[in-house]
Amino acid sequence: MSDNMPCPECGYEYTYELNALWNCSNCGHEWNPEVAEDASTEGGLVVKDANGALLADGDTVVVIKDLPVKGSSKPVKGGTKVKNIRLRDGDHNIDCKIDGFGSMGLKSEFVKKA
Question: Model's pTM, two decimal places?
Answer without folding.
Answer: 0.62
